[in-house]
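Incident log, support desk, overnight shift.

02:14 A customer reports that sequence design results differ from what the structure should imply. Their input is reproduced verbatim below. On-call engineer (initials T.W.) acknowledged and began investigating.
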C-alpha cells in the first residue's frame, strides 16, 4: 500500500489535536476510521509513530515524519489553492499588446475595473504599432491584441469599435479657426506629419497630402509632442485626443467618411488561461464613449 495524502492529513490531525477523538472531530470522521488509517500508515512505515496508545507523544521517527508530513501538506494545500484560483481567474498572468492610442484612451478604465475585480491577476501590457501587435500574436508573445489590423487567420477576431479620423493641430493653428467646412484641399501646403494609421485612409484627396509628408512618426506620444511644438499637423482618430490635451484641437473633416477600425484579437480560446478569457470579456463588454460599436 502506498502512502496517501489522507494518511498524512490524518496523522497530522492526531498530532495537532492530541487524541483520536479530537482528530476525528476535526476531520469529520469517526474515531475508529481515524485509528484504522493511522494503523495502515504505521504498518506501511513498519514502525510506531507514537510512544503510547494515547497518542500524546511521538517517537523520534514519528517526530521526523510529522515534520515532513506538515511540510508536504502545506505545499499540497498551496498547490490546490493555486490551481483553483487559476481555474476561477482569481490568479494568472495575461500578456496584452496594444497600440499606444488605445493604451492611453480606451484601456485605463477597463484595466482599472478588471484589476479591482481580479486583485491577484498580473498583466503585462506592451504598446506598439499595429504591425508589431500582429507580430506579437503570431509569435505567441501576446494573449490579447488590440489594433487596427483586421481579422487574422488562426486567431479569434472581432471588431470592437470604429472612430472617425480628423485633423490634429495646435488649438491656436489657423485651421482651428474655421474647421467646420475643412476638407483635404485645406491641408495642402501645410507641413504634414505622417503616422502608421494614415495607410487606413483611402480617400483620393488625402493621397497628395500624405505624399507631401517629410516626417513619419509611429509613436503616438512623440507624434503629439511634435504637433504641440508646432512642427506640423497630422490626422488621427478622435479618441487619441484626450480631454486633458487642452492645447490640441481635433478637427473633423467635411464629407470624409474615413474611420479607424479597432479589432480585438486573441489566441484561440483553448490557448487562453481563465484570467485571459476574463479580460477578453471585460474588454468586449466595455462601453467606449465617442465611438461606434
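02:41 Re-run completed on a clean worker. Output:
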Amino acid at each position: 500500500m502506498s502512502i496517501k495524502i489522507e494518511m498524512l492529513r490524518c496523522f497530522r490531525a492526531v498530532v495537532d489535536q492530541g487524541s483520536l477523538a479530537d482528530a476525528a472531530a476535526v476531520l469529520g470522521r469517526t474515531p475508529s476510521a481515524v485509528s484504522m488509517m493511522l494503523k495502515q500508515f504505521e504498518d506501511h512505515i513498519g514502525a510506531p509513530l507514537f510512544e503510547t496508545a494515547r497518542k500524546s507523544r511521538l517517537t523520534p521517527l514519528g517526530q521526523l515524519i510529522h515534520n515532513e508530513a506538515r511540510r508536504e501538506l502545506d505545499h499540497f494545500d498551496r498547490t490546490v489553492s493555486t490551481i483553483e484560483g487559476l481555474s476561477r481567474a482569481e490568479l494568472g498572468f495575461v500578456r496584452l499588446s496594444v497600440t499606444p492610442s488605445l493604451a492611453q484612451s480606451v484601456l485605463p478604465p477597463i484595466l482599472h475595473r478588471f484589476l479591482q475585480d481580479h486583485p491577484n491577476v498580473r498583466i503585462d501590457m506592451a504598446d506598439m504599432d499595429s504591425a508589431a501587435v500582429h507580430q506579437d500574436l503570431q509569435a505567441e508573445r501576446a494573449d490579447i491584441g488590440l489594433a487596427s489590423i483586421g481579422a487574422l487567420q488562426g486567431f479569434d477576431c472581432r471588431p470592437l469599435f470604429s472612430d472617425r479620423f480628423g485633423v490634429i493641430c495646435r488649438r491656436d493653428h489657423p485651421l482651428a479657426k474655421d474647421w467646420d467646412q475643412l476638407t483635404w484641399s485645406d491641408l495642402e501646403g501645410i507641413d504634414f506629419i505622417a503616422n502608421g494609421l494614415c495607410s487606413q485612409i483611402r480617400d483620393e484627396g488625402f493621397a497628395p497630402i500624405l505624399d507631401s509628408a517629410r516626417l513619419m512618426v509611429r509613436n503616438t506620444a512623440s507624434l503629439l509632442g511634435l504637433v504641440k511644438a508646432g512642427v506640423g499637423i497630422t490626422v488621427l482618430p478622435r479618441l487619441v485626443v484626450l480631454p486633458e490635451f487642452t492645447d490640441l484641437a481635433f478637427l473633423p473633416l467635411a464629407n470624409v467618411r474615413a474611420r479607424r477600425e479597432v479589432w480585438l484579437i486573441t489566441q484561440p480560446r483553448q490557448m487562453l488561461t481563465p484570467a485571459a478569457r476574463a479580460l477578453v470579456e471585460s474588454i468586449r463588454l466595455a462601453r467606449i464613449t465617442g465611438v461606434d460599436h
